[in-house]
Amino acid sequence: MAFWFCIKHHRVEGDEGCRAKDRLGPYDTEAEASRALEIAAERTAEWENDPKWNDDVDQADEGPDRGV
Fold first, then answer.
1. Strand pairing class (23-27; 11-13)
2. How many CB atoms are located within 10 Å of the residue 34 CB?
3. pLDDT tens, position by position, 10-49
4. For residue 33, which of 9, 18, 27, 41 is within the disulfide window of CB 3.0 to 4.6 Å?
5. Cα separation of 51 and 68, whole Å?
6. How far apart are CA 30 and CA 7, in angstroms?
7. DSSP per-residue letters across 45-66
């Protein structure tokens, strides 16, 4: 069974729950699903601080491959 976090009702749900557009997941455990918003925030912070994906870097100084 998969678990989902409903962002509309702020609760963990099973496969039968709110519409997909209102849910985060799937997660393997109910405990993991209950941390969905925290997990999403952690992933966002990682992406925002990843130098390969940082749009704030001056691309002109990095050559044609832009540091990739």
1. unpaired
2. 16
3. 999 999 999 999 999 999 999 999 999 999 999 999 988 8
4. 27
5. 9
6. 15
7. HHHHT-GGG-TTS-GGGGTTTT
